[in-house]
Each structure stands twice: as structure tokens, then as C-alpha cells.
Amino acid sequence: MRAFDGPTASSAGAGTEDADGSRLVGSDRVLAVLKELARYPDGVKLEELTRVIGSPKPTVHRALGALRRAGFADQDAHGRYVLGDEFLRMAFAHHEARPEHVRIRPVLEALAHRFGEAVHYAVLDGREVVYRAKVDPPTGAVRLTSTVGGRNPAHATGVGKLLLAHHLDGLEAVEAWIGATPLVRRTPRTLCTAEDLDRDLQATRDRGYAVDDQENEDGVNCVALAVYATSPGAPSGAVSISALAYRTPLRVLVEAVGEIRDLLGPLAGPHR
Torsion-angle region of residue 149: left (phi > 0), alpha (psi -120 to 50) or beta? Predict the structure, then answer.
């Protein structure tokens, strides 16, 4: 699975304008600087932030000052700005306190231990999925580079297609969801037409699980099942076991779907 990147430099620069085209001011600029800082775990110089944000150097410096006073930014010995400890504390505390994360973490750990592969919990956000939790295998020389908070196109992933199958019932719904923006082709196997995606979503509904047959990244496949963490009537998200194809073929994952459901227990909801 690919490393999950934040906004590109060009999109970050465009981010200095609001949706209506106006320039960012006040708190909006502070938030833009905070968001940009998250892209530089090793820190970033004021000059680079100024260039990417697209605002005058004094205004970016003032935004950084506000963030530092709140503990949301800090400056290292080399003058590079990084996210502050207070921001990280709040983010991790919030993440750990989320009800679905508290309930799902033990299941992810059990699945990672059983299959020796990375396990994810993700939710749908428009045309993308957002990874809320991840457990790496306890052993193994090769691990996936996915991260909590990372995103991938929904149509190219097992978790995404599983959740789309619950939202898009029929070709017309799929066509409306795609709209005028073509689906991104991540690999030669990515489903990029409404007809192909609709057929896959129907198959997902029929069998109760989704598969990613190297559609998001070459050499990586996965199987995904719905998770009912907050309501028995609709999935709150999906769990996937993402495996290196040479190490754990898709066939092995599919044959283990029943066992995966057993490990999910009550979280498997209607598919139990």
C-alpha cells in the first residue's frame, strides 16, 4: 500500500484561498499553517512555509507565533518549525478515546497476529477512505507504509468498495457518485468505469465482503468486511487485511472470510 501523502505543494499553495476565492485571513491562515506543518515531521524553515503557504513572511511568522503560544507548534534547535507536543497530545488522546477505536483495536491486533499481515479500520469520506486505525504484523521483514489518518481512493480499495456497496445501489447511483471527475487509475487493475465498479459493488453485496486484487497498489491485495461499531443497522466503517500478494495470496484471504467474521464477533453485525 502506498505511503499516504498530504496535500501537494501546489494544492497547499492554493489552500491560501477560501472556497470563494478570497484570501485567507486571521484564524483561517493560522489553520492553514498548522495543516502545512503536519506535512513536515522533520520540521520546516519559515522561508519554506512562506513559499508554500503563499502569504507574506511576517503574516506566516505571526501565525506560527499564535500556534507556539497554544503549544500547537514548536521550533527546534536548528530553527525548523514542527507540530507542538500539546497538539500531538490532544490528537492522540482524541483518537484513543473514539468509541470505535477502543472496541476495534483488540480485533485488529488479533487479525494481525493470526494472518501476519497489516490490518486496517477505515471510514468513507466522499470519494476517499480515511484510515482510523492500523495494526502491523508482529513479525515480517516487509510492512506496508500506510498510516493512521492516511487516505486512498475509495473505488481502488477493499474497504472503500465495501462501504460504497452500502451507499450506491445500482448503476445510476454509481454514475452520479462518479460525476464529471474521472476515477483515478492506481494500477492496471483499478476499476475506473461506472459499469465495472457497479458490477463489483453488486458482487460485494452478494457475498458480504469486498476484495482488492492489486487495484490500489501492485503486489498488494486485501479482503474487507463491514464493521458495525456504532449501529447495528449501518456499518460505521470496514476492516481489511492487506497482504503482500507473494506472501499471502488473495485466495488465502478469501478462504478465511468465515474466520475473519468470527474474530470480528459482534462487530460483524448483520453478517454475523
Answer: left
Q: Are 163 and 169 in contact (CB under 8 A)?
A: no
C-alpha cell recorded at residue 170: 445500482
Residues 209 and 162 sit within 8 Å (Cβ to Cβ): yes
CA dihedral 242, 246, 248, 250 (to 10 degrees): 70
Name the 3-class secondary structure at 166.
Answer: helix
Handedness of CA 229, 235, 237, 243 (dihedral sign): positive
Q: What is the pTM of this model?
A: 0.65
Distances (CA, A) of 242 to 14, 32, 74, 94, 136: 34, 33, 36, 26, 10
- The residue whose grid cell reads 489553520 is 31
Burial class (CB in 10 A: 0-12, 13-18, 19+), 252: middle
Q: Which residue has the cell 484561498?
A: 17
Q: How far is CA 26 from the centre of its chain?
A: 29
Q: Is 227 exposed, middle or buried (0-12, 13-18, 19+ CB in 10 A)?
A: buried
131 close to 147: Cβ distance less than 8 angstroms = yes
Q: Are 223 and 195 in contact (CB under 8 A)?
A: no
Q: What is the mean pLDDT of the chain?
A: 83
Residues 102-139 have pLDDT tens digits of 678 889 999 999 888 889 999 999 999 998 888 888 77
- Kind and range of the H or E run holding 124: strand 118-125
